[in-house]
Amino acid sequence: MPASMQGELQPTIYRFKFGDFEIATILDSKVVRDGLHPSHGGEHPASEMEALAAANRIDAKRVEHPFIPTIVNTGKQLILFDTGNGALRREHEQLRNRSVDGHLVERLGQAGYRPADVDVVVITHGHPDHIGGLTEGGKVVFPNARYVFGAAEFDFWKRGENVREARKFNRELFVKIAVPLADRARFVQPGDEIAGGIRAVDVSGHSPGMMAYHVESQGKRLLIWADTCGHYVVSFQRPEWQLDVDDDKEKAVATRKRILDMAATEKLFVAGYHMPFPALGMVEKSANGYRWVPVGYQLNL
Ligand SMILES: [Zn+2]
Q: The whole model's pTM is what?
């Protein structure tokens, strides 16, 4: 008898030693969206996107979009960067069709971490797929955690001035689930150290105060760059193309180019929230742009 089909089986946790630290990337969830275009590069004809997709052997019409938080154990503190989608889809009518159930807590458990073990939750920026796992059913998910927000980011969403139409619900959500955490939060500026070896880097543009985090231990360096790049082909090979989810499109382009150049020049490892799992790679300069080079075994040795 022929063997039965077993269905998809794909990794959701990748953990490695990084100097004195232990780091894991965890797949919270993923969605399949229709079409790279016009959400990416909408100011260019669709034919340009089709050519780019074909050259990279991906389908321009169907896009897998993953959500991948990073957790760092420094040996002194367990620090989670972003919280995935959590219960957003179930708890908010407005997100029913746009969001997806998060699996971060369950997969953290598989990796050996309980929510109560998390000492610090760092929010890179206030978009739903990054703050969604902060609370569930009105309760905080990480009961012992303190929080870190970029000061400008927190201020922007809290004030609610100049929020573009497409982000109005995002603003409501931030006020509901993130603002109440202020009394347990620290608000940081670019350059601030949030723990020994981990400092904030300005990557604003995608959101008004988005922050990346540069993690360094024993000479190894990793940049947790949040949503600096939204897609592993388009954002690298056409960094100047606009992205509809970037709140300040021109600034996001400038930031993308600056950070791509930095990651390539300084030979950083990168953890990219929306890069294909395990969302770890390097940036290589190419003739007209850059390329995402997924990690091989570099982090295993
Ligand atoms: Zn995102």
A: 0.97
